UniProtKB/TrEMBL annotation:
Biased composition (Low complexity): 179-194
Annotated region described as Disordered, given as residue ranges: 179-258
UniProt keywords, alphabetically: Cell cycle, Cell division, Coiled coil, Cytoplasm
Residue ranges the record marks as coiled coil: 75-124
Localization (cell): Cytoplasm
GO biological process terms on file: cell division
InterPro entries with a match to the protein in the record: DivIVA_domain (IPR019933), DivIVA_fam (IPR007793)
Family note: Belongs to the DivIVA family.
Pfam families attached to this UniProt entry: DivIVA
Protein name per UniProt: DivIVA domain-containing protein
Organism: Flintibacter faecis
Main subcellular location of this protein, as a coarse class: cytoplasm
GO cellular component, one term: cytoplasm
Domain of life: Bacteria
Length: 258
């Protein structure tokens, strides 16, 4: 493209015969040079502006691409986080349900075991009460027969017989108590062995002490002098008022004689 300076400095050779009017040509070139200079300058300005706009468009395009990539990355991260949260929630729910089922089964088994122990304790208690009642009736009948056989016996001799009969009743009651407690202890140990619980060898010292207390009730090895000394101290309340108190009996794991 010609510049305005090249147009204005353009020179033509003079023709020998019939050429253009030199003055008109120069005048036209002057006008053309001015217009062309304006157009050239405007074209340069437009080119510079277009370059700036192109740079801006490229910048916007790069920014748009970066934003689009960032948006896609954020979307993928959000989807991943939601998926992981859903998976974690499902795992926690499954674990909680499993633990709840196991706990429920354990409680049901424990409840059934306690019901079985309670039923066994009630059965042993009923048997023990029946034996004690039968023993009491037999001893009462025996005392009545003694009073009928020797009505004229001395008062001291009759009192000795009554005391001896009472001691026999006490010995029989203690023997029945020891037998009932041994049966209950054996039943509890068998139940604990079935459930996988520790047996009597691994029980606390308090339970072993309770078991050792039953070994002290031996009516055969007791001496008469010791019986007279401990008669008033160890006499149960049943002999004092004529009735047997079963309110202190305990069942299950806490079964012991007080």
């Amino acid at each position: 493209m010609l510049t305005p300076q090249e147009v204005s400095e353009r020179a033509f050779q003079k023709a020998s015969f019939g050429g253009y009017n030199m003055g008109q040509v120069d005048e036209f070139l002057d006008v053309l040079t001015g217009d062309y200079s304006a157009l050239y300058s405007e074209n340069a300005v437009l080119k510079s502006k277009m370059k700036v706009l192109v740079d801006k468009v490229e910048e916007y395009r790069s920014t748009e691409e970066a934003m689009r990539k960032a948006l896609m990355t954020a979307q993928r991260m959000a989807d991943t986080m939601v998926k992981e949260a859903e998976q974690k929630k499902a795992e926690l729910l499954q674990q909680a349900e499993g633990e709840a089922r196991q706990r429920k089964q354990a409680l049901e088994q424990e409840f059934q075991a306690e019901e079985y122990r309670l039923a066994q304790a009630k059965e042993h208690t009923a048997q023990f009460v029946a034996q004690v009642k039968a023993l009491q009736a037999a001893q009462t009948q025996y005392l009545d027969q003694l009073s009928q056989l020797s009505p004229a016996a001395p008062v001291q001799s009759q009192a000795d017989r009554v005391e001896k009969a009472a001691e026999e009743i006490d010995d029989n009651v203690q023997r029945l108590l020891a037998q009932a407690m041994q049966e209950a202890t054996a039943a509890n140990q068998a139940q604990q062995a079935q459930e996988g619980e520790p047996t009597g060898q691994d029980q606390p010292e308090a339970d072993q002490a309770d078991l050792s207390d039953t070994a002290e009730f031996s009516p055969v090895s007791a001496q008469p002098q010791q019986e007279e000394q401990s008669q008033e101290e160890d006499m149960p309340s049943a002999r004092r008022d004529g009735r047997i108190d079963f309110g202190s009996l305990q069942f299950g794991r806490d079964y012991e004689i007080k």
